[in-house]
């Protein structure tokens, strides 16, 4: 599961997360990790576009948290990749994305991997190589998480229900 910040203009119009330039770059990044978009679920911390595309405010994040909680509960992912500081702050309040990006940590039986938002590389090209390097590590992190669960090392690890593959739903 990948969790971003909020819908941008293109996302708001189409009702799907990461469909603009950042979404195209995210698809490239997923390719570096050996993943396809159809193999991952993408959500956002808030479910609406903030006015003038400003940063989400704490009350907006709080108001939308129950919806993200339900998505996480329904999908029950072993690995969650946070994209940017707002989704990272959900699990690591007070941390800086520049300090902990690409460093997985276990929280409540899940591996949480904070990553820089793909848009960061679009606005500041010097971050591109760093973000790409972090995404190249994803297969290793996923394998570590699966191995830990297989060894029974985490009793609190989420179960893996025998259900059909979950599809990304439209926001509308």
Explain what the structure shows.
- With 172 residues, the chain is of the alpha/beta class.
- It has a single domain (2-150), classed as Uracil-DNA Glycosylase, subunit E (3-Layer(aba) Sandwich), CATH 3.40.470.10.
- 44% of the residues lie in helices and 12% in strands.
- The protein has 8 helices and 5 strands; from the N terminus they run E-H-H-E-H-E-H-H-E-E-H-H-H.
- The longest helix is centred in the middle third of the chain and has 18 residues, at 58-75.
- The chain is globular.
Short description:
This protein is α/β, with parallel strands linked by helices.
Count of distinct structural domains: 1
Alpha plus pi helix count: 8
Provide the β-strand percentage band: 5-15%
CATH topology: Uracil-DNA Glycosylase, subunit E
Which structural class best describes the helix and strand composition?
alpha/beta
Can you summarize the main beta sheet? 5 strands, mixed
Low-confidence stretches: 159-163
- Please tell me how large the radius of gyration is: 15 Å
As laid out across the biggest beta sheet, the strand order is 2-1-3-5-4
Helix and strand run: EHHEHEHHEEHHH
Mean pLDDT: 90
């Amino acid at each position: 599961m990948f969790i971003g910040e909020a819908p941008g203009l293109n996302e708001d119009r189409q009702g799907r997360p990461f469909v603009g330039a950042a979404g195209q770059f995210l698809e490239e990044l997923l390719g570096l990790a050996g993943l396809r978009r159809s193999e991952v679920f993408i959500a956002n911390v808030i479910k609406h576009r903030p006015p003038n595309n400003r940063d989400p405010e704490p009350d907006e994040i709080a108001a939308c948290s129950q919806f993200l909680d339900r998505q996480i509960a329904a999908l029950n992912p072993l690995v969650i990749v946070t994209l940017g500081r707002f989704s990272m702050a959900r699990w690591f309040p007070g941390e800086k994305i520049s300090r902990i990006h690409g460093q997985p940590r276990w929280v409540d039986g899940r591996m949480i991997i904070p990553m820089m938002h793909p848009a960061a590389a679009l606005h500041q090209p010097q971050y591109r190589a760093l973000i790409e390097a972090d995404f190249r590590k994803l297969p290793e992190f996923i394998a570590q998480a699966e191995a830990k669960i297989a060894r029974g090392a985490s009793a609190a690890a989420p179960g893996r229900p025998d259900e059909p593959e979950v599809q990304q739903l439209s926001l509308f």
